[in-house]
């Protein structure tokens, strides 16, 4: 009698398996696995989408170079030292130096957004004791890579 029940049970499970294409009691596990796979794919696609968006932002990926000259009380007030410090903070490359006519000249190279930030710093901030009358920017152009390895003060 027990062997007949066991045979009957096996036939019933075999029929269920053939009808549903899944072994018995595994439907729930496969569904959870499928959900995990879908979730992982969504996370990966979201990350790739965000990365692509960041890399295609034109102001972030363009490198530019520009020459500058700052007029006013900019010598003897640590203007070059503060300019170098701010340039390094912004990950810019280039240089600055005093001129014989009392100005500070230099070159900025880096991402367009960081160069713009530095241009505003040169216009409106400078060193604490400086008095900026005007700033001229010349020869701004897109560059493929920086010419300088760091931001230096020239003597």
TrEMBL record:
Q: Is-annotated flag, keyword Transmembrane?
A: yes
Q: Recall the GO molecular function terms of this protein's record.
A: acylphosphatase activity
Coiled-coil region(s): none
- Domain Acylphosphatase-like span(s) in chain numbering: 65-155
State the top-level EC class. hydrolase
Q: Which residues form the active site?
A: 80, 98
- Per its UniProt entry, which superkingdom is the organism in? Eukaryota
- The reaction(s) this protein catalyses: an acyl phosphate + H2O = a carboxylate + phosphate + H(+)
Keywords assigned: Hydrolase, Membrane, Transmembrane, Transmembrane helix
Q: Which residues cross the membrane?
A: 35-54
Enzyme nomenclature, EC number: 3.6.1.7
Q: Which SUPFAM superfamilies match?
A: Acylphosphatase/BLUF domain-like (SSF54975)
Which InterPro entries does this entry report, sorted A to Z?
Answer: Acylphosphatase, Acylphosphatase-like_dom, Acylphosphatase-like_dom_sf, Acylphosphatase_CS
Q: Does the keyword rRNA processing apply?
A: no
What the record says about family reads: Belongs to the acylphosphatase family.
What this protein is called in its record is Acylphosphatase
- Could you read off the lineage of the organism from its UniProt record? Eukaryota, Metazoa, Ecdysozoa, Arthropoda, Hexapoda
């Amino acid at each position: 009698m027990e062997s007949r029940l066991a045979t009957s049970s096996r036939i019933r499970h075999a029929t269920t398996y053939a009808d549903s294409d899944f072994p018995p009691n595994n439907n729930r596990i496969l569904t959870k696995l499928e959900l995990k796979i879908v979730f992982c794919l969504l996370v990966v696609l979201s990350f790739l989408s965000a990365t692509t968006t960041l890399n295609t932002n034109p102001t972030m990926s363009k490198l530019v170079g520009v020459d500058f000259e700052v007029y006013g009380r900019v010598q003897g007030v640590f203007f070059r030292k503060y300019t170098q410090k701010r340039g390094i903070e912004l990950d810019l490359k280039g240089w600055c130096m005093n001129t014989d006519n009392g100005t500070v000249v230099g070159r900025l190279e880096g991402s367009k957004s960081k160069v713009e930030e530095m241009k505003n710093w040169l216009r409106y901030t400078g060193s604490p004791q400086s008095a900026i009358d005007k700033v001229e920017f010349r020869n701004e152009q897109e560059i493929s890579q920086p010419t300088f390895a760091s931001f230096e003060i020239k003597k």
